[in-house]
Amino acid sequence: MSDITQLQNREEESFAPQNLQEYFSKQWKVYQKLLNSNYLGHREVYCRLHELLVSYFQKPFKMLDLGCGDASFTAQALLNTKIAFYNGIDFSTPALEIAKQNMAIIQCAQTFTQGDFSELVPQLLQQQQDRFDVILISFALHHLHLQQKDCLIGQLKSLLSSGGLFILIDIVRQEKEDRESYLRRHLEGLQKHCSLLTPQEYSMVENHDLASDFPETQQTFEKISQKYNFTRFECLHRDPHDIIQMLCFYQ
């Protein structure tokens, strides 16, 4: 059995119901350390998201947030925007409970749903009730493989209202970089620049990334946007380490 397969098996065991609370608690603490270090420029990318939402939507808008997590940065990005309805979906029940608290500062109708967004999106399509002005996926799409990403983005286009936006904030490989090269560059940079992590915490991040991170290139996402006839595609933000990008697909 390969090292990657072993890591994937351990990752799947972590998501067993009896282990989920403990897993979330451990991962939560490490994730908060990464956020506090701002190594990947979370503050800057969500500031750019806020600017986009303020400038683009002059009328009340509805947002679907897939893999919303605790929604802490999203809530800040939504302050003083014309958000009218927010629907947050995440696999983790503990994260959703915290998301409800963080989103309390936003005055709009809100719904939170526990589940796998890759399974819930087709259900939303079948219901044919809601259309969203903006769909956000932040640091979640990279867990899917390319064919799954392609299919999901095609489904999201059908959930967007006319003139709507699909906004993707995620890790992105350089054009000539394969997955292994990206992971090596990312983990070496993390070890060098994020001194807040203990060796054990760094090992947790490394194991998770090796098992679960499957980033694509910006060029791949642009081809997907063309495949599904989005009117425009552009990169609105790139962090200094060239790890994170904010990509916008225009309906």
The gross shape turns out to be globular
| Broad CATH class | Alpha Beta
In CATH terms, the superfamily is Vaccinia Virus protein VP39
Please bin the fraction of helical residues. 40-55%
Spell out the helices and strands N to C. Answer: HHHEHEHEHEHEHHHEE
Structural domain tally? 1
Order of the strands making up the biggest sheet: 3-2-1-4-5-7-6
Our measurement of the CA-to-CA distance between the termini, rounded to an integer number of angstroms, reads 44 Å
Q: Tally of extended strands?
A: 7
Rg result: 18 Å
Please summarize the sheet with the most strands: 7 strands, mixed
Q: In percent, how much strand structure appears in the residues? A: 15-25%
Unreliable residue runs: 1-20
- Helix/strand/pairing class, anyone? alpha/beta
CATH architecture: 3-Layer(aba) Sandwich
